[in-house]
């Protein structure tokens, strides 16, 4: 069964077109948007590392007299046998303590691909049970491991937050968003990587025949 994650060129998943995380012919996540202090970080570049990993490099602007931003953020999306995972690494070259509020908002979904292509919303009412939700049938479940993040729930949206403090010479802070998995009642666990037919944007997938991102 084919699975995949489609993002825009900056690494954000906004539910536009086919963007999302898909399991088989169903989209199980429609949005995954990263914010720092209530704003999207400034995208700088996208760096592809082989078939299973991509880095999205950003600047984060904080109050400072320096003309150049001295805080940078790397959002790494990786596909492996465990599924799709993300890590966020932030480093500061400021000479004072920097406090940041990092947030990733994830909207879960259960829309068949044919409805995604037509621009329709979820095919049926979605019930989120903590970090799990049904997709396709009552026997199929998708699960997000939030790692060290604080979790907040609002309908079909899971908001993950981290409070980060970076002092001079700290060497940065790393935040982990653990693999997103889906499973069927029969056939074991199916992990969530990326399809090869993405119309645009870097891809990450973990299958027996991985493609370049």
Considering the chains and any ligands shown, give keywords for the structure.
single chain, 213 residues, 1 helix, elongated, 9-stranded antiparallel beta sheet, disordered C terminus, 7-stranded antiparallel beta sheet, mainly beta
Provide structural commentary.
The chain is mainly beta and 213 residues long. It has one domain. 3% of the residues lie in helices and 54% in strands. The strands form 2 sheets. Strands 4, 5, 6, 7, 9, 10, 11, 14 and 15 form a 9-stranded antiparallel beta sheet that branches. A 7-stranded antiparallel beta sheet has the order 12-13-8-3-2-1-16. It is elongated. It starts with a strand and ends in a 9-residue tail after the last strand.
Concise overview:
This protein has 213 residues and is mainly β. The protein has one helix at residues 113-118; strands at residues 3-6, 20-23, 26-36, 42-49, 53-60, 71-80, 83-92, 98-112, 128-129, 132-135, 137-144, 150-154, 157-166, 173-183, 189-191, 203-204. A hairpin with a 2-residue loop joins β9 and β10.
Strands, helices and their partners?
Blueprint: E1 3-6, E2 20-23, E3 26-36, E4 42-49, E5 53-60, E6 71-80, E7 83-92, E8 98-112, H1 113-118, E9 128-129, E10 132-135, E11 137-144, E12 150-154, E13 157-166, E14 173-183, E15 189-191, E16 203-204
Antiparallel strand pairs: 1-2, 1-16, 2-3, 3-8, 4-5, 5-6, 6-7, 7-14, 8-13, 9-10, 10-11, 11-14, 12-13, 14-15
């Amino acid at each position: 069964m084919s699975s995949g994650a489609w993002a825009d060129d900056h690494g954000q998943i906004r539910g536009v077109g086919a963007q999302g995380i898909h399991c088989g012919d169903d989209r199980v996540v429609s949005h995954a948007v990263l914010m720092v202090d209530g704003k999207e970080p400034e995208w700088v570049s996208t760096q592809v590392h082989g078939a299973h990993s991509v880095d999205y490099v950003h600047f984060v602007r904080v109050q400072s007299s320096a003309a150049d931003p001295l805080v940078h953020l790397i959002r790494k999306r990786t596909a492996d046998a465990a599924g799709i995972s993300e890590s966020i690494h932030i480093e500061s070259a400021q000479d004072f303590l920097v406090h940041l509020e990092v947030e990733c908002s994830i909207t879960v979904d259960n829309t068949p691909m044919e409805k995604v292509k037509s621009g329709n919303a979820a095919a049926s009412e979605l019930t989120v049970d903590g970090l799990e939700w049904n997709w396709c049938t009552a026997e199929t479940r998708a699960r997000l491991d939030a790692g060290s993040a604080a979790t907040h729930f609002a309908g079909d949206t899971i908001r993950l937050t981290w409070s980060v403090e970076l002092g001079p010479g700290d060497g940065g802070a790393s935040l982990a968003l653990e693999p997103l998995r889906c499973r069927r009642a029969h056939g074991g666990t199916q992990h969530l990587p990326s399809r090869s037919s993405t119309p645009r944007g870097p891809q990450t997938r973990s299958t027996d025949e991985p493609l370049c991102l």
